[in-house]
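Reviewer 2 asked us to include a model.

Predict the structure of this chain.
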Amino acid sequence: MTRKLRLAKGESAVRRGQEGSRASTRRASRPGTKRKRPKTLNLAASADPKSGLPLSTMKIADLYRPLKKPVTLRLDADVLAWFKKDGRRYQTRINTALRKVMEREMKESRSR
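Predicted model (C-alpha cells):
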C-alpha cells in the first residue's frame, strides 16, 4: 500500500516494526554512502620532485602546504590578462605574487 493510500485511510506509517507510531525522519543508510576513513598522510607523495632535495634531508616545513580557500576576487582586466598570458596555473602565480608581498611586509614590520 502506498503512503498516499495509507494517509487517505488515516493509517499511520509502519516502518521497522513500529506499528501505530510515527516513523522516524532519519533515513537508513544507503548502500554506497558508507563513511570513508580519512586517508593517511604519505610524505613521499607530498614531496615536490622538482625541488631537488632528497626525502632524507627534507623537513616538514619543506612539505607544508597551507589550506586553500575559495574566494571571488575582482581584478583589473589587464592584470588578469598579464597573469593568464603564460597559460594554465595563473591562479597559482597570483597566489605566489601575493605571498611574496605578504612575506616582505611581515619581514619589514618585524624589523621596525
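The mean pLDDT is 74. The longest helix spans residues 90-111. We have added this to the supplementary material.
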